[in-house]
Amino acid sequence: MAVSAAHASHVPTVQFDAALIRKLSQQGPRYTSYPTADRFTDQFGVGDYLQAVNSVRAMGARNPLSLYIHIPFCDKLCYYCACNKIITKNRSKAETYLTYLKREIEMQGKLFAEMNQVEQLHFGGGTPTYLNDAQMADLLAHLRKWFRFATDDAGEYSIEIDPRTVSPERVHTLRAQGFNRISFGVQDFDPDVQKAVNRIQPEEQTLGVMQAARDAGFRSISIDLIYGLPKQNLITMGQTLNKVVAANPDRISIYNYAHMPALFKSQRRIAEEDLPSGETKLDMLSLCIKRLTDAGYVYIGMDHFAKPDDDLAIAQRQGRLHRNFQGYSTHAEAEMVSCGVSAISAVGSSYSQNEKTLEAYYESIEQGELPIARGIKLSVDDLLRRIIIQMLMCNFELSIKSLEMAYPITFAHYFATELEKLRALEQDGLLKIDSEWLTVTPKGRLLIRNICMVFDRYLNSPREAKLERLKYSKTI
Ligand code: SF4
Predict the structure, then answer these.
(1) Mutation choice for ligand 1 from 81, 89, 166, CB with most ligand atoms inside 8 A
(2) Domain residue limits at 58
(3) What is the 3-state secondary structure (H, E, C) of the chain?
(4) pTM above 0.85?
(5) Is 346 annotated as a binding residue?
(6) Are both 281 and 331 inside the same structural domain?
(7) Confidence at residue 174, expressed as pLDDT on a 0 to 100 scale
(8) Which domain CATH number covers 279?
């Protein structure tokens, strides 16, 4: 898809407009996939997945592979957590899990044999470093047995780290084991905030392992923060941001804490009176954007910031940024094969999700079957809307002409209803529409989900009750 000359030559900017956010912020999906995972059905099964793999093979399997490995275990519960995780100190559970995970990797490896190499590997969780050194080495050797990997300088091999679980020595070992990108869960440096969310993580510990990651030669170091946590205020946020900027990571993600205790049981342990008000949250977001852009970080989109010379920022300038279940990525057009409980794959024109409980996951593998529980086969309309949402999320613009060349549609006719809704957002100043481009304004970038939601056919179908949106977090 085309990128406008203006886009190619300028670093995207972002403009914070509190009144506009107040007016338009609503509940909506984060679009790590389209259709979103809540549209997957159990009508989709292993047979459909195998068909998707076969079509990829039949088309010449040109795309590289991206592997995701899910390790669901954590030592301790963080109260804000909305991930699919299992809290246990019983390490033998990880041993059992690894046995099954390796069998699933072997099944997937056989399916993709002779196809393209792996250019991306991501370990997520839970806590991937719940595994010890020997278990990690064994798992990586198993992955290398069943998949062909690009060399260290060509591939992106990343792991999410809970700094409480690793020593500086362990970080060096992870680099030697083949990881070249690392992201650290920090959330907030303030001790009172840490206490309120049950995640005590001394600053020296976090900074120590970050330094070790630099010394070990990791190519990209990333920090995850959250705003909207209990006991946070503008002062604590300012102090945390100062420390983050001083720590000098290549990428920073700042997530909005969505307090949804009805959906996530662990969040019921958070005292509601400790939560910052909506207004304070907006001020904190404004502060984050100001501090980080003043410090030279580029706003990539959807909570992500990166240094201008980081691969993500470069890929965005060149119009080849991509978005998947792990957020933004520089490797577009990869077949994403995910292994582990609840993991989601994106192969060909399909999404598929593994069983969500360990019991069901183990049982399928025991029967020699891939543990796929649900998914969706994308229609041509889904594919078209997916590319539009992808373009808007990653590049903040859409070339109507390129889309019309790639798909047999006339944009103004096919999306007549959507254009009407977009005109209202144009009046609000979120985007500009002409016959060739949809261009998101700097003010519209923070509300990009609102613009994407216009193209979400499922969300806009008559069946979709307004109440159903309550399962999503707020767009800001
Ligand atoms: S936030 Fe991370 S470490 Fe904490 S419980 Fe959730 S998955 Fe585990």
Answers:
(1) 81
(2) 38-338
(3) CCCCHHHHHCCCCCCCCHHHHHHHCCECCCCCCCCCHHHCECCCCHHHHHHHHHHHHHCCCCCCEEEEEEECEECCCCCCCCCCCEECCCCHHHHHHHHHHHHHHHHHHHHCCCCCCEEEEEEEECCHHHCCHHHHHHHHHHHHHHCCECCCCCCEEEEEECHHHCCHHHHHHHHHCCCCEEEEEEECCCHHHHHHCCCCCCHHHHHHHHHHHHHHCCCEEEEEEEECCCCCCHHHHHHHHHHHHHHCCCEEEEEECCCCCCCCHHHHHCCHHHCCCHHHHHHHHHHHHHHHHHCCCEEEECCEEECCCCHHHHHHHCCCCEEECCEEECCCCCEEEEECCCCEEEECCEEEEECCCHHHHHHHHHCCCCCEEEEEECCHHHHHHHHHHHHHHHHCEEEHHHHHHHCCCCHHHHCHHHHHHHHHHHHCCCEEECCCEEEECCCHHHHHHHHHHHCCCCCCCCCCCHHHHHHCCECC
(4) yes
(5) no
(6) yes
(7) 98
(8) 3.80.30.20
